[in-house]
Structures are given as C-alpha cells and as structure tokens.
Fold these 2 entries.
Entry 1:
Amino acid sequence: MSTVSITLGEVGASLALIAVAIAVSFWRRAELEQDIALAVLRSFVQLTAVGYVIQAIFDSDSLWLVVALLAGMVAFGAWTARGRAKAVPGATGPILLALSVAAAVTLGLVLAVGVFEAEPRYLVPVGGMVIGNSMTAVAVALNRLADEMHDGRRQIEAMLALGATSRQAARATVTRSLRSGMIPLIDSTKTTGIVFFPGTMVGMLVAGAEPIDAVRLQVVLLWVLLGAVALAGLIAVSLAYRGFFTAAHQLRE
Amino acid sequence: MLRDVTLSIRSGSTALLGPSGSGKSTLLRLLNRLADPDDGVVRFHGTNVCELDPLELRRRVGLVPQLPAPVAGSVADNVCFGPLLHGKEIDPEGPVRQAGLDSSFLERDASRLSVGEQQRVMLARALALEPEVLLLDEPTASLDSAATAVVEDALGRLRGLSLVIVTHDRAQAERLAERTVELHEGRVATA
C-alpha cells in the first residue's frame, strides 16, 4: 500500500483556494474575509495540535488517554452545542449526558460486535466522529426546541390548562425537535456515494485501501452515526424540555 | 403585575374588568395555577391552591383562552382531549351542543373552522371536563359581533358552574356577570 506524505509547502499551496474564497467574499461584499481567515488559522492550529496529541496517544497505546481525549471532546462539544441552544434553560446537563451516552454506547457496540479492536487508532477517530455528529444534531434539535417552545407557547399553555402534564403538553414539540436534529444525517446517509463521498472512505481510498474495504468501513460508520445521533438527540430533547416548565406543570416566564 | 389584591370571588358569574395591562389575565392565570404569585396566597374553597394537585385543580377550574388553540384533529378529538388526559372517555356531543355548535361539527377538522367556531370548540373542550369554575380570558376579543353574540348566548345558557370572565368591555361584563371587579394598574379599583 502506498502512503500519502504531504509537505508543509504543499499545504501552503492549497491556500490558493482560500484566496479565491476571500476574493469572492470581497467582490460580493459578503464581509466574510475575517471569518474565512480565522477559520483557516483555527483549522490549521487545531488540527496540527490534535495531530500531535493523537500521535502521542497512539505511541503510548493507553486506553486511559483515549478516554481522557474523548471526555475533552464531549466537554468542548457540549460547550459548543450550549452556545447554539442558549434559549434552552439548564441545557448543559442534558447535552453532556447526551454526548457521553452516545459516545459510550456506540463505541461499546462496535467493540462488542468486533468491528474494531480496542486500540487508540480506531477509538479516537471513530469517537471523534460520533461526538462531532452528535453535537451537531443536539445543537439543531435544541435550537428547534427553543423556537417551538417560544412560538407554541399559547398552544402548550392551553393543554396545561386542560390538565395535561408538562410532558404531555410538550410531546409534539419534543418529537418535532428530535426529527429536525436527525434529518440532516439521514438525508446525507441517503445521498452518500451519489452526491458526496464521506470522509472516511475518501481518506482510505487516498491512503491506498481496497475500495470494498473502504466502503464497508464507511457503511459501518454511517450506521453507527445514525444510532449515535438518534440516541444523543433523544436524550437531549427528552431532558431539556423540562427546563421550560416548573414542577407544578407551569410554563416558566 | 398585580399588587395588594385582596379579593373574594363567590360562586355565580364574576367579570374582571379593566383596560389592557391592568393585570386581569394575570389574575385569571393565578386561579388555576398556570402561574403562581411571587407573594401572597390564592385559595380555592378555603385551601391554598399550592397544596392542591395542579392537574386536578385545572380540571375543576377550566380555562377558555383568549385565542383558540386547538390540538390537531377533529372537533371531537379536541373535546375528548381533556377527559382522556384524566383517563375518562366521554360523548363529545353534549359539550359541543352546550357550546352552541351542532353535532355536524364533530367530525370536522378543528383547524379549518372560523375563529368564532374554534372559540366555541375551546368552550366545549373546557366544558367536557365538567369543571366547577370556568375561567374565560377575553373569550370574544378576536370575534366579530355576530360570533360574539353566539358565544355570549352559549355562556348565558350554562348552568351549574361559576364563571370568571376577563373583559375590557363594560357592556359585556354587565350582560354576562352578576358581579364586576374592576382592576386598574394591578390593583382592585372597585369590587
């Protein structure tokens, strides 16, 4: 198998496309030049740093370090998702639990089934994918939950007035929020291989793996991600809706 | 915002009258614990409402909201919704007739009715719980005069339960209520 080696000069040359992005933004006055520059800088610094961290973890071969890294990803993911769900009262706990459970259950399952061995070189990238996709789904679902609780306040209070519990009054809202968190990944899973090639498959093909091997691994990962996203979304919305209600089944002001 | 309100609402029909922002809807929401006061006590038959099960209290003290908020489904689905929450199956025809609609409405999609008809569905839905008290929050504010007359007629025919009607319309208060409590800037002006 041939390996891919990329020099810093080659990385630098790819900045030409960034220049195109900045030129487009400047030309159409989209005012995204600073954001693009920041995104380029952050992606380089963050990925380089994490590259060294992952290298160190692979070298040490310590599962404890893997757990510590995944915990760090969960914490950062929860912080990011929290930022997008500011209008949900007390969302931090539900988000942390959602990401942790999604990561633990899905990684546990792929290990139990024997898809991967319990080694850092599998657990770190797969864990990162699971946590990252779960974070996005949870952020979308909670954002939608906040919007729906705000827009549907009259409807929900009318149900409470009939003697519905907060759970009964919020049921339809919670379901719609969960759907909105899951739909993007379901849609991208449906179109995979036609509209876009997922990253793992691309990485394996570029690195010289047999296409069928790359496809099988990608299929496993897509299905694992669907499960993780469903689990994370369900936990997050099922717990977070409670923040909108008091113990006496009243909507908070 | 309500301040220094001391008030006893007897059985029968009572109107809470006042301009918008005078606190009358807030007061109504305290009566079935959709909200709690920061300070002070609300009693129902002498018991602090905070000591009662809020779900049971809301069955006994029903509310018709200012704007219709039907659940998805037919008129019958809406009318049966409250009793089902409390584990009871009912015949929706009785409450629908009490609210001034005929039984041909039962299978119609509630969301496709006129606002006036939807407001009567809201009344039927609250009556289906057989409440002791019915709270009405500006029940005709969004209706034209013809629909207002129909709703007022249905309210006038109700027997065996007390009404608390929030309104900004003094004439309506006089038509519907035996007593009027007037609120002004969160305080009782006259009772």
Entry 2:
Amino acid sequence: MKRHLVSAIALLAAITPIAAEASCVSAPAVSAASAVPVIQYKSTTIDGVKVFYREAGPKDAPVILLLHGFPTSSHMFRNLIPLLADRYRVIAPDYPGYGQSDAPDHTKFAYTFANLTNIVDKLTEKVGAERYSMYVMDYGAPIGYRLALKHPDRIESLIVQNGNAYTEGLAAFWDPIKAYWAEKTPERREALAGLVTLETTKFQYTDGMGDVARISPDNWVIDQALLDRPGNKDIQLDLLGDYGSNVPLYPQFQAFFRERKPPTLIVWGKNDVIFPEAGAHPYLRDLPDAEMHILDSGHFALEDKLDVMAPLIRDFLDRKICK
Amino acid sequence: MTQPVTYHRTAQVAGVEVFYREAGPKGAPLVVLLHGFPSSSHMYRNLIPALADRYHVIAPDLPGFGLSQMPSPTLFEYSFASFSKVLASLLDQLGAERYALYVMDYGAPTGFRLALAHPERVTALIVQNGNAYDDGMGDFWAPTRAYWADNGPTNRDEMRHFLTLDGTRFQYLTGARDEARIDPAAWLSDQLFLDRPGSAEIQLDIIYDYRTNVALYPEFHTWFREHRPPALILWGENDPIFLPDGARAFLRDLPDAELHFFDTGHFALEEKADEMIPVMRDFLARNLSQ
C-alpha cells in the first residue's frame, strides 16, 4: 500500500506543472491606503559604473521593469511604484548619466543606446529577473526593445507610454536632432544645446498638461540640477546623437512585436510634441491586440494622469500577468 | 487603488510668495504639515497622498525653504515669529478655520506659536521629532547654545557645517537602520535649496532665532495643559538632534498623548512611513470628526 502511495505522489509530482518561478500573491485584502509599501533605494556596480535603482514588492513576484526617459530617472516612477508593489516586484533603474547612477565622463564611458541596454541587461541578471514586463517611456523604449531583441523569451508584457518604434512617430521636434544624425558637426551638435536647459526640461513636464498645478516642480528641479552637472551636457548630446542608431532597428522591433505578440498596453499622452499620438497608433499594425488608451496629457503623462493610468496599468497586469 | 492628486500652488502672503502642496477633499477635516530644517514640503511628498483620501492636506514651504520665495533678509524678517505669522496669513487666505497640525523640527515651534495665537483652531497635534522641552536637547546643542549666547563670527561659523551636504546627509541617515530605505533624492533635493546664493546667511540667522523658541517653551506647556488637544507623538528614537526624553516630556502636559517610538532617526518618515502612517490614520480617525 505504501509503495503505491509513494508512486502516486511521484506521478502527481511529475504531471503537476512546475510552479512558475514567479508567483503571485492573491489580490490584496487590504487597500493601498492601509498597507504602505516599502521602497528600497539601492546601488550596484556594473562594468565599473554605480547603477542606482528603486526596488519594491515581493521578491518572488513577477517583475515589472520600469525604463525611464530623457532627461529624468527612476524618479519619474516614484508614485507608480507603490501602486504596483503589493503584487509585483518593481525594478526601476537609473541609466548611467542619469539620476543617482554614476555619470562617468563621456570620454570614459560610451553613452550609446547599445551600452545603456547592456547595463540594464546586466542589472536584470544581477537582481535575478529572468522574465519581466517592461514599462517603456521615451529613451526607455529603444532600450527596452533592444533588450527584447536580445532576450525575446524574457519579455512577458509591454506597457508603452510615449515611447517610439515607428518612423512616423518622429515629428518636427526631431528635425534638428535628425540633422545631427545626418552629419555630426560641432555646429549641428551645439544646435541641440537648448534641449538640456531648464526651459526645455520644464516644457517637457508642463506642455500639453491641462492643469499644471498637478505637476510637481520637484521633477524639473531635480532633473535640471543633474543636467547642470559639469560634463552632463556632453553625455546628453552624445545620446541624442546615438538615438539615430535606434531607427534602423525599428523593423526588428516591429518583427519582435509581430512574432512574439507580447500582451501590450499603450497609454499615451496625446499632446506630446516629442512623441505625439501619431507614434502610438502604428503599434496596432504589429500588435493588433494591444490595448490602447490615448490620454489628454503630455510627455510625462504619469505626473498628470497617474490617477487614470495606475488603474489601467494595474488592471492590465492583473489580467495578463497575475491572473 | 490609486492615490489622490497633489496640487502644487503658490499664494502671495504679506508680500512673499509661499509655495504649498495641497490634496484631498476641500470639505474634509484639514491637516496642516509643517516641515523641518533643512527641508520643505518635499519631506511630506509621500505622506500627503496617504492622508488625502480622507483629509484635506496642506503642506507649505516656509519662506527661504524649498519652492517658496527667499526674499532678502533686508526685506523679510527670518524668525519663527515671522514664520508663524506668514503661516497664519496663508491659512486665513485659504479659508482654513480649524486644522490638525503635524509638526516636525522647525515646524514644531512654528506650529506651537500658531497655536498660541489661535488656540481654538487646533483640532489635534501630531508631533514628530519636534521639540518643546529642554529634555529633548542634549549635547548636540552645545555649539548652538554657544552661538545663542554670543552670535559673533566664530560661533556663527561653527554652525556652517549644518548647511553642507554632509550635514544634510547626517540629518537623514544618523539613527536610520537601513540606508536602503531612504531615497537619496530627499537630501539631495534639500541641499539644492541650501546651496542657493544667500541661503547660508539666512539659515544661520534662523538658527540664531531658534533661541526665542526655547524661551517660549513654558508658554507652549501652558497651552498644552489648558487646551489639551488630542495629541500623537511619533518619534524616531535614534535622533541625535531631539532625544527620546523630548518626546516623553510632552506627557507631563498632555497626559493623554499617545506616544510611539520608531527605530529610526530625525527624518523618521523617510524610513518608517509604513509603520507611522497606519498609526497616524488610526489617531486621526478617532480624533478628527467631519
């Protein structure tokens, strides 16, 4: 009898699916207001560069990788993270040159999208994130999509917010930047200098927003202080120049979408002059099942419309990842 | 599951532009959050949404701090008496008739002075590493007391290290148990404002004026005893600036005060908000009515 029991148990173990490495806690019984998530602010050294990242959530929960845009850092996700951290393991790095990460001189570190991707890739491996969903915004889109090309099996879902993968998404704002891509002269480089000024930084946060009082000045105060560091202008101009290397990859990004069909949520501030609404709709060609929400907001939509976006993001993840 | 929206506004108050964060239903009980040195309402950035589902929350930046204007000292008196008046005018302007006060560090003497001026308006007190008793001030204060006794250049210069990045980091990290729980943006943001031209001399003037708060301690105690507002004392017990005895001392004049210590330092909210917020919400729910 005992031998049969042992065999039965062995059989059961063999046919029961191996538990996924990431496991979901059941939907929380307590509301977000009464359980305050703890965010951790950590750094680790990758390729000799200190990389700062915010981390929150259960260690064995599905990973959501939040990839920030220019000219900010994981700071842009500070209010979204607590709203996901009860059920998801949220990781939000600062790329080298941004936020609290090191910003080595541009003669000592290659500020390219390939290299930033390399750093983020190594970070995901270092923190043991074998599979992840990605929230990509602005620069975070080419970085995230390059990651996807490298490791298509790792990408569980996409949240795309004002991040581009289609040539029709690069409108007039990009003309002087495209001119620099075409010919990397000192004049064409210097023509981009306005992009790292306070005026532009503040513009990125306030343009296209209905009620500017909803936007915290902390954003541009902190971002601009970091942009104003000696050497940071060169870092930013290098990356603006290298953004051109993302465009030839667009067909490959689109092939990834078509072939792997990751569940995708698009939340897009339609008034953004940098990545206008025209860059959102093309995704549906290659991701016909993508859920698209066009919001009356600007580039940094999270600052303006977190109250609308967080429930959309949460509902999407709860349906696609933690069912 | 989302969080309430925080609004970022300014008001002209007696010729000074005062910045404040505001959130929550306008008709709900009001909670006013008063920041400490060397910070601003930025220190309340995460507390505000955690209260604003049920409460109307206002968190101003004192003149010379954060995003409020920093007028020249020839045009504006940087003193706690002056801060309290500016605060009173701001609250009048915003139509605030009754309010609970969350006070930390500089916010404590500012808020207690406001309470002395308008005792009937204070509905409850939450005191977090904010002092009103000699018991709270230990050896850390010796150089400052020397400065109060003699504000010549030597003693004034002794205070300058409080204005450096190291000094600011000290305030955030000393007594904290896990540095990884504290967002470095907190002290880096504070330091940006400390580093503004003209800021250092203003801050040194304010440190000198702090002595006038100590002189008022007996009047604060009388107010506590006579008005007995519901009181919650939340204290980072490892704070070198305001010692645990400074927390316990409140119980002499507010015997019904609820006292909670947390294993952290001066800027307790940065590390222990997850423990402090439920305690605060419970206290407010029991003591603030619609």
